[in-house]
């Protein structure tokens, strides 16, 4: 669990296709509200499309960084915030918010539970990948409508991010953002509220 890192530095070595299928099957075993299974994994294999996505995220990284000043700006610019060009496997993950699977059980009063279910699938994929020495990076610095248009996505699907999968350049027990001084993990006790 502690080796589950958000990987940005990937080796370009390919992943065995049977391994990718095994990971997707495990992700599909995640819990979902009403057994709706609303996750949709869009695999990006076309080199030109991959480059378009990487260029888009590069532009979004610059735009998002415009809020920082001084030392924080310098540190932000030094961070590698995606591995879209290096990771051998790339997915866009979507939530099918209009799925009829599950008959809307649990989603009538809390429709966002479908997105939470998709996050469970992503987390399951992430942990399963780590048990096999595979790293994953979740890229969220993007403009959803732009990514949707690039991928020709149905209107009722909601983008949750891009996932980069591959073997990490190095195994690290401490998150890169902590190693680089961006932030430090808080003590878990600080996140508990009692009423």
UniProtKB/TrEMBL annotation:
Residues 4-167 form the Nitroreductase domain. This is 5,6-dimethylbenzimidazole synthase. It comes from Sphingobium fuliginis (strain ATCC 27551).
């Amino acid at each position: 669990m502690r080796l589950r890192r958000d990987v940005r530095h990937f080796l370009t070595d390919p992943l065995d296709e049977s391994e990718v299928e095994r990971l997707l099957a495990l992700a599909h075993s995640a819990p979902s509200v009403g057994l709706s299974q609303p996750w949709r994994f869009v695999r990006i294999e076309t080199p030109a499309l991959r480059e378009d996505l990487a260029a888009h995220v590069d532009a979004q990284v610059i735009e998002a960084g415009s809020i920082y000043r001084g030392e924080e700006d310098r540190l932000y610019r030094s961070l590698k915030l995606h591995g879209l060009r290096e990771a051998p496997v790339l997915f866009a993950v979507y939530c099918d918010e209009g799925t009829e699977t599950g008959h809307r059980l649990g989603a009538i009063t809390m429709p966002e539970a479908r997105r939470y279910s998709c996050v469970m699938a992503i987390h399951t994929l992430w942990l399963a990948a780590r048990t096999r020495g595979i790293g994953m990076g979740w890229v969220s610095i993007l403009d959803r409508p732009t990514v949707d248009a690039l991928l020709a996505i149905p209107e009722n699907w909601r983008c949750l991010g891009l996932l980069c999968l591959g073997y990490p350049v190095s195994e690290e027990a401490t998150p890169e953002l902590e190693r680089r001084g961006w932030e430090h993990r808080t003590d878990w006790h600080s996140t508990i509220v009692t009423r």
